[in-house]
Amino acid sequence: MNAVTPTRRAVLAGASGSLVLGFSLPARARAAQPARPFRPNAFVSIAPDSKVTVMIKHVEFGQGPSTGLATLVAEELDADWGQMRVEQAPANDPLYKNLAFGTMGTGGSTAISNSWMQMRTAGAAARAMLVAAAAKRWGVPAAQVKVAKGVVSHGARTASFGELAASAATMPVPEKPALKDPADFTLIGTRLPKLDTPAKTDGSAIFTMDVSRPGMIHTAILHPPAFGATLERFDGAAAHAVPGVIAVRAVPQGVAVYARDRHAALTGRKALTAEWDFEQAETRSSAEMEQAYAARARTPGVQAGGHGDPAAALAAAAKTIEAEYFFPFLAHATMEPQDAVIEWRPGKADVWLGSQFQVGETTAIAKTLGVPFEGMSLHNQFCGGSFGRRATPDMGFAVEAAAIAKAHGPGAYKHVWTRENDMRGGRYRPLGIHRIRGGIDAEGRITAWDHVIAMQSFMKGTPMAGPEIAKGLDGSATEGAHELPYAVPNHRCGYHMMENGVPTLWWRSVGHTHTGYAVETFVDELLALAGKDAVEGRLTILVDKEPRYAGVLRRVAEIADWSGPKAQDGRTRGVALVKSFGSYVAQIAEVSRSDEGIPRVHKVWAAVDCGIAVNPDVIAAQVEGGLGYGLGAALFNELTIEPGGMVREGNFDSYRCLKIAEMPAVEVSIVKSAENPTGIGEPGLPPVAPAVANAWRALTGKPVHRLPFVKGVVA
Amino acid sequence: MATGFTLNGKAVSFDGPPDTPLLWVIRDAQGLTGTKYGCGVAQCGACTVHLDGRNRRSCVTPVSTVAGKSVTTIEGVRGAEAEAVKRAWIALDVPQCGYCQSGQVMSAIGLLTAKADPSDEDIDHAMAGNICRCATYVRIRQAIKDAAKAVAA
């Protein structure tokens, strides 16, 4: 038996972020063992006490990569789950880049998919070296050595990983270690408890917000009231007079207040007055933007996808419909606002940050401080949510925090945005207009689909912009619409890249946040126009080349016992089907009219195909949470730009978030698959809003083409 | 003048401005970081503590108003309800990002302390002030029910 069988609580003590290293703890019962851990590669470290620490290259904001990546290593290593630890990787692209990005980064639901072979190989290599060490020690062929649940054995002889670690370190590193047949998986596919749960339950988990350094100065910032406005002058006298305020300084991002504690920083910030230059500011209101976008959406735009001749097909159609959709700006509104701790002196800096682009942000902070990259240490922290917000191509918040630290001189600084800073800080899901015209023939077949999208590109001008941007195209704005899952013979998707001074960004599920809604509500209307069932009708027209669409659609119909849109107690149902980030999700929502006249969603059934399910419970949790996040936005959320450029909503009193009473019951079914895993952090989101809208149309006869529903149901 | 109160069973004193929100006294002066800042206006519940045993949003509670009273944070909460709630939370792997969860757990303990067998409506009402942007609500609801059963057993 392995002598070390830590309790789950003990596991967590070593798993709470980036500071505690399991392998640096003294091994009580094994003082005679060598003290150095066995490190077969950059991802796996095995301590003399048998604890296995996995370097996690993806940031943890609840989507589960710590647990998932540790599972992949543990599976191939044949470790016991109780001996696994995790540590957040440092900023190092050669070792820890996202293989899908080429730099360290978390996004696009890629954490498991890009790490799938890499982490399994890391685990398998470590296992092979432990086996070689055991074979040598016992004088037996390696092929006869077995490993199970953290115990290496041959017949009656056993050894723990820790006992073999020193010898294993001298064994050759296998270049291509054999990987398991998926049929032999013992951990992948099971509900392993998440490593970060206990610390996130008892308050001991440390976020950036909780980091404290000796002599640390607390900073707050006053931003310009409109995007693009710049500081003319400020009066810091009243702020300075606040007890605890140390300094007030202009920085490129606004005016910063430095204080001994958070309360003083916030009080000082309130006392600040400033005048701003609006010359370069975006001063149009949302309503003006909408008008401009809608006018453009009535023209064809640059062709992003399509085939056939939709204009001719529309002219020849037996029946046609058209719809104009409005999608508002959306804030990510993470529970933990943007924050960072930076401690620097000439030539050296430590950074505590929930970093989604570890190397990019570390580099940006280094440049701002004037510290060489080699002098930087990033301590990546748990983040209180991201939903895309902490991955900014211009590293904007990191640069702001560094500029504030730099402006005051060497020392330790904690920079925290207020909720209002965060809500009014931009980086929104862009506002957009879709216009779709569709037609069916006399037999009810969809023959024409002409789709135009007018929306800003948040890729343009960033290092992530591809060559298509110069042609006026941006796949992140049209994904899900420039290619349909349905076999429509005449299809066109046009795109207008709108200019806008409001900074925008990807928001959980990116383009699918709006294309999924437009496509899935419009196809539903066309099927209804043809008198066809929403499930059967979709199954008939799904493209042949991707049978996994039909797999999830059939499954969701089965678990919901779908028999059309009418449900019991006067409720109605709607269905939607969206593939995003390589994963297929179909959902059925059951709704009634709430007391406030908007959809009340009672239950959502979801069927998911994301390839091999590494941890079915994490997948279910991501679908529950993803559809809850999407539902809240669809029901309530809109960031409104006032005439002059000010953002109306500032806190949760005006930006209404989904509450527990509004959360539907959720039933998730995972379709068994032998495909390599794809993502699940985002794909649970896109189908929920169109499924609810389709149910609402069945209930009221009215389509909803304007989000959020609180406005769209009366529009 | 210093404000004296009891924090997790120990007498503490704060000599900063009396209008300082209890949240910042707990976090900055006392160094207990389980209680979180989320909104500053009692709209999200991340800062929930117990004041003389009842749920209270510490971000809008001036420290002067807790003089002589007993404040309990996630680090100090004890008792059958607290243990049952935390166990249920872990068993269901409720947290995702985790940032709001101290507040969720404190509100859930407050609910079970006041009402041993809460209905769905009781849960809706008692937890209405706690936002979870990860939308872990399905599991929060189930965990509260499981905890209630465990306390009753």
From TrEMBL, chain A:
Residues 202-280 form the Aldehyde oxidase/xanthine dehydrogenase a/b hammerhead domain. SUPFAM superfamilies: Molybdenum cofactor-binding domain (SSF56003). Residues 1-29 form the signal peptide. It comes from the Bacteria. InterPro entries: Ald_Oxase/Xan_DH_a/b (IPR000674), AldOxase/xan_DH_MoCoBD1 (IPR008274), AldOxase/xan_DH_MoCoBD2 (IPR046867), AldOxase/xan_DH_Mopterin-bd_sf (IPR037165), N-heterocyclic_Hydroxylase (IPR052516), OxRdtase_Mopterin-bd_su_IorB (IPR012368), TAT_signal (IPR006311). GO terms for molecular function: oxidoreductase activity. Keywords: Signal. PROSITE patterns: TAT. PANTHER family: ALDEHYDE DEHYDROGENASE. This is Xanthine dehydrogenase family protein molybdopterin-binding subunit. It comes from Sphingomonas gilva.
UniProtKB/TrEMBL annotation, chain B:
Keywords: 2Fe-2S, Iron, Iron-sulfur, Metal-binding, Oxidoreductase. Residues 1-77 form the 2Fe-2S ferredoxin-type domain. The keyword Metal-binding applies. This is (2Fe-2S)-binding protein. InterPro entries: 2Fe-2S-bd, 2Fe-2S-bd_dom_sf, 2Fe-2S_ferredoxin-like_sf, 2Fe-2S_ferredoxin-type, 2Fe2S_fd_BS, Beta-grasp_dom_sf, Diverse_Oxidoreductases. GO terms for molecular function: 2 iron, 2 sulfur cluster binding; metal ion binding; oxidoreductase activity. The keyword DNA repair does not apply. It holds the Pfam family Fer2_2. The lineage of its organism: Bacteria, Pseudomonadati, Pseudomonadota, Alphaproteobacteria, Sphingomonadales. It comes from the Bacteria. It comes from Sphingomonas gilva.
